[in-house]
Design a protein that fits this description.
146 residues; 75% helix; mainly alpha; elongated
Length: 146
């Protein structure tokens, strides 16, 4: 069974973010919030790869490419959040989340569920912003109105 381009690139986003996160853990850099924010590079790269492939195949339709970009980026984000929740549970549950949240914008004592939910909303927003930014970039290069 062959996965679609969107799911394949979404899985690559997930793998890239996962490896990046594990490297940051190994180097004790996971407490630096600005290092954690660099994972958006993976979303940009692989969503752009999906759109680039679509345009090479002649798919210039904005709705088709919007769907394709969103599927790619949201697949990576959702899989990453699920794996973070599982990883957090393995590493000590809410105690581990508290250590992560010390350098993040959380108040009180977050749980795995609240931390994952807030990151999910943040991830969805960033996936939508990345997708539509790239769509505007590609629309300028390959206008569908011509």
């Amino acid at each position: 069974m062959k996965l679609s381009r969107e799911l394949t690139n979404g899985l690559l986003i997930f793998i890239g973010i996962g490896i990046y996160f594990l490297i940051m853990q190994a180097l004790n850099l996971s407490d630096l919030y600005y290092m954690r924010m660099l994972n958006i590079v993976f979303i940009f790269y692989f969503t752009n790869l999906t759109l680039k492939s679509n345009y090479k195949e002649g798919k210039n339709s904005f709705p088709i490419n919007a769907k394709s970009a969103l599927i790619t980026s949201l697949t990576g984000v959702i899989l990453s959040i699920i794996s973070l929740a599982i990883y957090s549970d393995i590493k000590g549950g809410n105690k581990y989340i508290e250590s992560l949240s010390d350098s993040f914008l959380f108040g009180g004592e977050p749980t795995i569920a609240s931390y994952s939910t807030s990151l999910l909303f943040e991830g969805i927003v960033s996936a939508v912003i990345v997708s539509f930014t790239l769509l505007l970039f590609w629309k300028r290069r390959y206008p569908s109105d011509s």
